[in-house]
Known about the structure:
The protein has about 675 residues and is an alpha/beta fold.
Amino acid sequence: MTHCILQLALDTPLNSCFDYRWPCAPQERPQVGQLALVNFANRDMMGLIVAVKDDTDVPLDKLKDALAVRSQLAPLSPRWLALAAFAADYYQRPLGEVALPGLPKNLRAAGTVALDRALKKMAKLEQTHDGAPVDMPALNAAQQIAADAIGGAQGFTPLLLYGVTGSGKTEVYLQACAQVLAREQDAQILILVPEINLTPQLEGNIRTRFPGVMLATLHSSLSEGERGLHWIAAHQGRARIVLGTRLAILASLPNLKLIVIDEEHDPSYKQQEGLRYSARDLAVWRARQLAIPIVLGSATPSLESWHHAQSGRYRLLELRERAVRDAVLPTVRLIDMERDRGKDGLSAALVAALKLRLERGEQSLLFLNRRGYAPVISCDACGWISNCTRCTSFMVLHKPEHRLRCHHCSLELRIPRHCPTCGNVDLQPLGRGTQRVEEGLQLLFPQARILRIDADSTRLKGSAQAAFDTVHRGEVDILIGTQMVAKGHDFKKLTLVGILNPDTALFSQDYRASERLFAQLMQVAGRAGRAARNEGGNASEVLVQSRYVSHPLYAAVMHHDYDRFAGSLLAERKQAMLPPFMYQALLRAEAPLLANAIAFLEAARDCMEHEGITINDPIPMTMTRVYNVDRAQLLLESPSRPALQAFLKVWLAALRDMKSRVKWSLEVDPLDI
Ligand code: ADP
Ligand code: ZN
Ligand code: ZN
């Protein structure tokens, strides 16, 4: 028996590949892209074969034998391997960490029983999708142009579908998909959405629209087993539509012909830990690699994508009007809270508007991006406030749960009966969260059916969906919620949106805060008036309660003027040399003592020449302490992406050699700085 050498990527923090011996006849050699089970550091783990060789620099008697090769499954394609290699290289992470975690566990685990069982289940998945095809609704002219542009595009074609809320972007995607599926026998389409639970309507639409076509879904709320099945369906080319969240960008799709990124501006496309990749950016790379079209859709495109559209790199498709006949964009009114202070955080104008909707039997939505009852409690007598003992943050009052909770480290305490410092029994809640607004509404409108939707009210699996269903069935008069209610939903009876206290983001240090706030307000405002006007012919309304009604951001919201607002933000960014005119990377360090984190970052800054790269001074992060650990960061900037990439590679090797005890991590293209 002869043998060959398998070079494997393993999911370890070490930035290299590992050689193993595999006894086999020359004609039975494993292939690159297959998976092999090996023992590494006394643990059995799965590795990805990246090369099959005759020999190696390591002495043969030092090499271990691989334990098994998974040959039941076709190898991952060279193109897929190139995608994983690119992501690893660009985000400066080990290849194994990119390539392996996305693979279904039953492929990675020891033993082949699970895999064989999974493959058998595939047949069942296929049989569940029969049904009568549903007619496609007639598109309006703008939609038709967009659908044809996407469906008919050849070669690498990035398209930005800029469509106001309710303009029927989903319909455009579906009809473009239909064109591609009809034209190419075994074409596959990848559709990414920010959060699958918030877009359940889309999955239903796809199923009824394409009854004979297998749909696979890939997101983190599927069980391991289900996700494994769907992954295999995609890998084998049987699933022709794959709908998923950001992690689906690394799915194996041998016949991928079109990528759709819905709500492309959404921050959840960026992974916030470990491999901090942007699924949107990887998607564009993948489309170029495969020479296929990709459509990025949004009512408020990210400034990066908008910039590309303005400069002609992306083709711009516009939907300026709402798709449903007679549905118009809502009228936006700014309520000056300096003048109309109201009660319980609700201005007189908003209360009157709510009353009117109740009388008409229409629905209202109140948006407040702060959960809990009050963000902090305090003692008037001595000035004590409910700080978290482990973080630079407050303990939030959760009244229904009778708890104080830190939203950063999950510390929970009973609500103190008296002030821990001076004994005063009269502790006051300061500020207002969704629970408190709900309480105020119940007093104001005892007859109304009020529902709160936020992370606290939807802890149980499936409860968010159940809550949204009651809204769709019309069993709710007033809905109050956090950003969970802002996205995607098509509430047909909703004619009033109230936005409470959006001001804090106006003065944030984060230069992206206003871009984000604007997108969020346009999104939530866009929930109103999606169906035709009511019988009285009244347009729907959005009321924004603010203390800064003359702020230009609100003027832009009032006029639904994304173009001009985006234009002015881009001009500011250009002047200040910020992204997308600058490329950034962020080195973060954490240690029990802030001084140690800062000292490490200073050493990192000074450890080598960095011509063409600006390295700023280390600073503590805004939220410095979380769970007893202090955090600091170092920002690197360069107008040249290749220059930054080249520098990072060498620099990271030097940082690893420092062998510091401080925990550190690097993020390329950070969103939060
Ligand atoms: P967006 O994603 O752009 O916010 P949606 O795709 O949710 O908008 O569409 C908004 C509403 O318009 C939906 O109820 C959808 O069924 C409807 N719609 C879309 N296109 C058409 C059309 N061509 N004719 C009639 N109604 C349409
Ligand atoms: Zn006190
Ligand atoms: Zn805490």
